[in-house]
Amino acid sequence: MGINFHRVHSVDVVNHATDMIVWYRLRWHDPRLVWNASQYGGLTTLQLWVGDGTGAGETSEIWTPDMTLWNQGESMQTSLSSAFASVSSDGTVFWSRPGHLRPTCKFVGLDSFPFDELGCTMEFGSWSFSGLYLRPVKMDAGFSIGGSETAGESFQEFSLERVSCRENVYPPYPGDPENDWPVLLYEVVFQRAWQPYTRGYILLQAFQYNTPPRLGPPPPRLLPSAAPALPLLRFLLLPQALLAAVASDFVIAAKLPAAREMTWFAQFSAFSLAYAAAVLVESCIVIGLYYKTSESLLPSCLRWASRRAAAVGLRRVVSTGTAAAVGLRRVVSTGTGEELDAPTREVSGAGAHAPTEFSRRDANDFRHEAEKDLNTKWQRVACAIDEVARWVVPLSYAVGLACLLAVK
């Protein structure tokens, strides 16, 4: 038995199936087909028809061996074309048929996706006859690749990398100790084109972890009014980067089976997504510090809630009528002299309300010099954190990515 692998038609990783265009060849000896060529005018070769993919077909003229692809997704009787068999005068029969082999594969090597080499094993043997009656052996090496101008692949995701063939014999069943079951195992390896995945997915995620526009004053070529817009770009770019990474995962998931094993790309995607989330958290922290005007690190809503809780507690004490509690309520205040009551608005100008911590205001809209000084301090802290992150995050990401590439 021998197979010429013409080209790879398709590889379906999700459904564990492959489709290959092959020339399937069988050669055997049938003593019933021996004749003396000299008695027939020197006739040494006959072309006899074999229909329906088997010698048992209604139109078949000779017997053919019962050879079957054991892990077939489609029967070879329908996937291979019917063809003539060449019969020699010494009883040698050569039967070659073009068509498709569609095995169901137990893929190996998918854990390295998209840099994987997928291995698929095809098992050929007789389904009805044991080795006592029919024993398949390799025809020469058992396989060949190409041999015509139309063979091979181009502009295709998978290509045929290498093929090997070996003989294997399954031991007899306990109830039939004389009959073993010989088979031929073809191990086919497919090489995936990894370049589209690198261009479309890996590079996209490799660059989305980087910190977007920095904090601080705008470059000289920009107007001063552009300063507040630069930090806001983070809230536009970073969520989009995270969504792009998630969208890439959805696209890749459609190309892979849902399995418990993690592929290389799944590890890379989780690694990149974690860094993108870390950059998003870092950006939220530094932007919050950049516009901060209070001395405490607690958010204004928590500080207001704590003051309200304290005020409610003091009112309950005051309701007891003790003079000490009344004096205590006048003394206790926030760090800026603000009483522990609900926030009130100060009137400035012609009935206009001065901005409170809950009012909308620009970055330079301060109520007093103390807030301005505090904001300057927090801006220095935010810029320092930002500059450190610009070095630490890319370098640590590059080291982690190098480790992932080393073990792929």
From TrEMBL:
Q: Which InterPro entries would you find in this protein's record? A: Neur_chan_lig-bd (IPR006202), Neur_chan_lig-bd_sf (IPR036734), Neur_channel (IPR006201)
Protein name listed in UniProt: Neurotransmitter-gated ion-channel ligand-binding domain-containing protein
Q: Name a single GO cellular component.
A: membrane
Q: Which organism is it from?
A: Emiliania huxleyi (strain CCMP1516)
Gene Ontology MF terms: extracellular ligand-gated monoatomic ion channel activity; transmembrane signaling receptor activity
Per the database record, which ranges form the Neurotransmitter-gated ion-channel ligand-binding domain? 2-135
Among Pfam families, the record links this protein to: Neur_chan_LBD (PF02931)
